[in-house]
Design brief:
Helix content is 23%, strand content 24%. It is built from six helices and eleven strands. It has an eight-stranded mixed β-sheet with strand order 6-5-7-8-4-9-10-11, sandwiched between helices. Strands 2-1-3 form a three-stranded antiparallel β-sheet, with no helix packed on it. The protein starts with a strand and ends with a strand. 39% of the residues are buried.
Amino acid sequence: MAKNRSRWVCQECGYSSNAFLGKCTECSSWGSLVEEKIIETKTKSGLGGQNLRAHEPEADFAPVMLKDIASSETGRITTGIKDLDEVLGGGLVPGSVTLLAGDPGIGKSTLLLQVAKSASQYQKILYVAGEESANQVRLRASRLGMLDSDVYIDARHNVVEIGKRLLEWREGVAIIDSIQSVYHPEMGSAPGSVGQVRESAQEIISAAKAVNTAVILVGHVTKDGSIAGPRVLEHMVDVVLQFEGDRARQLRILRAVKNRFGSTQEAAIFTM
């Protein structure tokens, strides 16, 4: 039987406390702690208790000597956009999770729809539209001239259901737009809160790595330019891309601020 309890979580840094505090003791922000209800169950895993890696042989979890690990010949997945591939270090790595961060309205969704269109020539593409309905995505896709592309649109928000879809999807590329719009049903807080972002990201990352699907998460930034949500989010993902520019102008700059699979010295300029 589920047991409900609460904790207070700072929306600036992710610090949690069992009691309300007017000032966060970690980052010194005033009035930033919000109550989050936690549902504890006997099963800790998401997906209704389903083990994301249950389909893998137990031997995969046994310690293996470094020299005995077989080299994977799986190549990178091209996005179909040369400059973006260069920023990524040669394309998306299967099973990796990339966070694309930028101000609201800067063009993140438009860029990723273009990626979906271009990459669909080579891979299966799943576009999870958490901030728009399927019809709204279709209207925007029509303006971009991509209605004939083989892109699958999923407008669900429940991250457990999204995780199940990723397990069924297998390989290819999945775009989640955005991590702030989805929610984990076992968390009592609203979508976009620190706890929701953290748990939702973990659910998606686990599913992506279990079935070797490359995932791109869209993330918004706060007024001070930092990525909205817990700071741990940047540590959880493999690649962090920053999309910057003046919304009053057409030029946008894309750069990698973290890349486990390549350099962070590359940048690309796009015209929106």
